[in-house]
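[job 0412] stage=fold_complex status=start
inputs:
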Amino acid sequence: MSGLEPIPPVLLARLGKPGSCGIDGYVADGGYASWKKVLAGAGSGEWTPAKVTEMVKVAGLRGRGGAGFSCGMKWTFVPLKEKRGDKPVYLLCNADESEPGTFKDRLLMESDPHQILEGMMLASFALDVRHAYLYIRGEMVHGAEILNKAVAEAKAKGFLGKDVLGSGLDLEITIHRGAGAYICGEETALIESLEGKRGQPRIKPPFPAVEGAWGCPTVVNNVETLACVKHIVDRGADWFKGIGRNEKNTGPKLYCVSGHVEKPGVYEAPTGIPWEQLLALAGGVRGGRALKAVIPGGSSAPMLTAAEIAGVPMDFDGLVAAKSMFGSAGIIVMDETTDIPKAVTNIAKFYAHESCGQCTPCREGTPWLLKMLRRIVNGEGKKSDLDLLLQISNQMGNGMTICVFSDAAIAPVISGITKFRGEFEAYVAKSQKPEFEQHAPDDLTNAIADRTAAGIHS
Amino acid sequence: MAKVTVDGKTVEVPNGANALEACRAAGVDVPHFCYHPALSIVGQCRMCMVEVEGVPKIQASCTVPVRDGMVIKASTEKALAARNATMEFLLINHPLDCPICDQAGECKLQDNAFGAGLPVSRTSEPRRQFPGYDRTPIGPHVIADMTRCIQCTRCIRFCEEITETGELTFIERAGHTFVWTHEGKPLDNDLSACTADVCPVGALTTKEFRFRKRVWWLDKTRSVCDGCEIGCNISIEHRDRVVYRFLPRVAPAVNDFWMCDYGRLRAEELNGQDFLKPEIRVAGEATRKQTNWGEALDAVKIAIDRARDEKKKEDFASKGRKDGIVVIGSANHTTEESWLLKTLFEDSLKVGTPEFTVDEGPRRRIRNKVDGWIYGSEAAPNSRGAEAAGLSKKSSSSLSSSTAVLYISDASFSVKCNDPAFVAELRKASVLIVHARKRNALTDAADIVLPVAALSGKEGTFVNAKGLVQRIDMAIVSPPVVRTDLEVLLHLGSRWGAFDARWTPRDVFEKMQASVAGYAGLTWDSDALVGNPPSISPAAAYDVLGLERDPGVEVFPRPSVTAPDRRS
Amino acid sequence: MSGGQNVPVAEQAGNPRAGEHGALSCGRALSFSPETRADFDRLLGRYPTKQSALLPTLWLAQREWGWISREAVDYVATILELAPAFVWGVVTFYTMYNRAPVGKHLIQVCTSISCHLNGAEEIFHECKKRLGSLKSGEVSPDGKFTVIEVECLAQCDKAPAVMVNDDDYAVITKDKLDAFLKGLA
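[job 0412] stage=fold_complex status=done
writing structure:
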């Protein structure tokens, strides 16, 4: 399909240009033309919120933050004015990029902030938003400075503020800095954090589109998603749809490639570029070594072996078919020298540190996994540990917790142990720790069966 | 109302109820920790997992609002496995120090470990410790031990939503999350000990009860707090004639699940009995001597009869004798006791209307969902009952005292009873008769002291600030010879033929119903009077949900007769 | 009501951002300078509720005093009309609010997966060693350095990534470490 042919950069088009962060350069490159166009056409009815939403829907834009949910669909979940009454609608730009292996939003914000703002403006128009917030992670101090400056510039030029460009529309954008919490990238945790609370995800339903920030309908979109909105309005839905592997995986996409590659970095390519092409963009595996494993969508995605990822289209559906996920397109490449148990332990450490601590299975389970993995790589593992790790992992996910953090936490553990069990067993074999009394999994299963048979339920 | 099917049984629950409440309404007890009927839903303990038809993932039932036609499967293998999993996670870091934990016996973690836990432990990792945050007071009444905490946030929500003082918070995150106060801002509000009530484990315990008794030894008796006129429903928790603590009993229209620290600490006040036998002062002697009831009551009768006779004599006024008999009742009495006082002295003996006074106390408050905050400002529980029974309410300074016989049916009717000047005023009476349990300035001055039981030894009814009639049950059989005020009055009255000494409190209640405002139509045994049982049981959810209870079903077992003294 | 002093957390012992559960006192009552107060007043206009300004206000507090002391919490709680315990709960949830004074250069070494694959742990330990065997979170005797381990800085393409105060440093390898540390001093 022609959609996979190399494209000139879209989101990264202005990367490296001198003054790429300034508004003058942005306007000179055709920036804010869409915003002007839409506002100018709003009075005559040429441009309506519904039209923008429809464009985004038709373009097939899927959320670039991780879940890959249809962006246009998400927008339509916001109750109509008749239903929501006087409640304002809020747009939150999720710039809490903290998934290990992901660094595309940072690049966008630090190199071309105005396209994000313009995307936010257009989305605000589509959603009838008067105040949009951009939640940037605390660590990106300079990103926040750049964005704040960009907002001030846009305001000075009349693209933001009261009666924007004489359209009668008011719009404010506030840059809100986080303070170091991975979980705040989860949309309801982000809302809690924006409201000045601990970033603990909320129970859903109600979904944010109905009851989000300050109890009002709220749409949370990723930075890259909103940047795409700008380009869709710029060039039309058909152009966007024409890029990508198929109509469900469309548009230009930023791929973050890191780990053992020659040229780690962000690469823009049509959604669904085959794995080998992407790897080639990043210069191949470092030092010409053989590939061992790839984590294809940020550390939450199950890792794939070299054989499994061969020929896989790097997009939402392609990776689901390969039993992993596209996530935030943070592709972590591991070469043949990689110690998988240690890598899994490192990821487990991350999740044990970043759990918000409210749900029991996640709060207790993530440190338990970490303690066991550490024991194994420290040479004190037991043979039964590997099965126990899998069993514990399996009882942490799939609805056991409020958000999907624990599903993310167990994915690397489960995939690591099932796919590279030999490496774990090698550690256990060298273990200095004698095998004391063990409750074999069979005993446990029998015990549960006995209890169930005896009618001891609750 | 929504029709919901739980494990094949269909029940109707109000819209807005959640699946957990629907399960309880259907008689399926789903184990849980963080859910509390009076607090907001957080759904974070992940214990109450159930399957909901049409929803692929397992659900925490407390977070699922009911829909009409919803089908809940609470006992499927998947649901039980999920609860097993949560129990396992909760126990891997719990110290399992039940033998030295005060919560043992009333611990939800223990209960649910038995009911929903695994029979084996699979962890061999070191357990999480919170050095410096174990066995530490976090306020005047509450001691926290974070190694036991299961992070259910009930206590945090209590301080945020009920008292709105916000002393407690989650600190840190992930596996280190625990509950604590901010430095320099202890957990010090008027309901602070309720945090220990809502704590499902031994993480928060009250200083006053800690290590005093294993809870399984405690007998529980329904009663009403006598700290003020709000009339919080309480459970008197006692053993071997010692009261160890008060716990609130669920009363949606009064104290909901709560009680104030002041009321809770009155438990200790019920212990101790200074007067074990009637005492009487023989004319001309400085000290009283102990006697028996017959002699004591005869002496009372003689004093009263003599005063009545004197008044009838022609030269009464000219001899400058003191006038008549004055009776001072008390707002601490049950309505039955007040009514007996009034009936005996006003109706039978015709010596005038008994008086009473009630102290103004510090403002107490309690919160329920019906009224919001309710306030109490009297230092006694039943001034409304005393008034309804026909006693005349006066200020403490306008009580009559210069009289031939002053009969005070409660030697602690006011804090002033320890004030020498006030007592001297009362002592102007020729004969001073008091009912008393504890010694004070007034009892020291009295001629006749009749030993009576504490709240824990009484039965009867109180009328609270909202006008609700609430029954108290006898928790403790008083030591031999000590009697309740009611018994003393019955025996005294029977000496004039006014009463039958064999009447029970219930008999008195039924006799007075016609003449006491607010009592007509009430039934001694009705749920309205006795309230909920001591421990919060699934049945309590009915009241909280406002569900109709099947009138034919005996939801609450009647209180058992207090167990005999096991030491003898 | 104090818990233990300097209670080590299993995960990050000595980290000024995680090592103290209870708020340390700075020994004096605090209030914002007029400039910060003006910034704070501007903040309030950006949110529908006062509480929403909590995170930015804590940032202002950290900018003003370098770390979040007990008195800072009390002050922030007062001006935002929140319970101090709530504010402390928020401070401890996030990792970037310092709960103890830190060195002039707060060296934050990322050890998440991409950096781990590029030898970040070694850089972290080397860094501490070369600064005089510092412990994680400890302030060096000259008050210049504090080294801590942090999670992903979204600089995976520049692994191992290091952040010093607010500035990002890319590809700090072992041979570049000395020059890097010298550059800071």
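[job 0412] summary: Residues 536-568 of chain B have pLDDT under 50 and may be disordered.
[job 0412] exit 0
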